[in-house]
Amino acid sequence: MTKGNITYIVINAVAKLQFSHPKSNAFPSELLQQLIDTIQILDADNDVRIIVLESAGDKTFCAGASFDELLAITNLEDGTKFFSGFANLLNAMRTCSKLIIGRVQGKAVGGGVGIIAACDYTFATEQAFIKLSELSIGIGPFVIAPAIERKIGLSAFSELSLSTNWHTADWAFQKGLYTHVFNDVLAMDITLNDFSNNLATFSKEALYAMKKVLWQNTAHWEKLLYERAAISGRLVLSEETKKALKKFKS
Q1: Secondary structure percentages of the chain, helix, strand, coil, to 5
Q2: In which order are the strands placed within the sheet that holds 130-131?
Q3: What is the pLDDT along the chain (250 residues), one digit of tens a residue?
Q4: Pairing between strand 107-109 and 60-62?
Q5: Which domains can be identified in the chain, with CATH numbers?
């Protein structure tokens, strides 16, 4: 049974959706699917107008994909299926009729950065550093690239993905990944709650129309993200990548 949990609560048309996992809020495939299913449930809920996506704890927002599952992949079909999990999540966030606000309290790596990029509006703390380490382990951030590039542009995405180093929350703010950055969680939550509660009072039809405008010209992701998943699924099979994964995990 997969460790971790997905929970949500709806108050005044705002759904607070939280994911958690003991390994720095990483995503095994089963937990990833649970998050997708929950987003779809909230999308169909007429009592919900805004979704606030957050993770548990106060240190790490999301460590990305499960390294244990990555190491266990032995064939192209399983590799493509694994990376299609994040493709499914990004497409679920993209097509969700509700605006999704990200609450980023700590560091994000790999797929976690992709999740942040797929949010429509994002609050973060100064501790919310980001890193794309995929190239250093032989796979590359191919599935999440369209989401990140859409938010920060090709030049910044190139810097983030090729350097494979940590980038500060201020860097992410300057590039447009974060909408606001705060000194601490308390200050962030006060502003986030006021913002989301106010936004939830707006016309449901207008909010949905705005969501569609924000995501225009992304319909091709239905095909593109799965083509990218196949690239990563192939690369993860190489001996070089397996060795890099084991070294990175240790």
Answers
A1: 50, 20, 30
A2: 60-62, 107-109, 130-131
A3: 458 999 999 999 999 999 999 999 999 999 999 999 999 999 999 999 999 999 999 999 999 998 889 888 999 999 999 999 999 999 999 999 999 999 999 999 999 999 999 999 999 999 999 999 999 888 999 999 999 999 999 999 999 999 999 999 999 999 999 999 999 999 999 999 999 999 999 999 999 999 999 999 999 999 999 999 999 999 999 888 888 877 776 6
A4: parallel
A5: 5-199 (3.90.226.10)
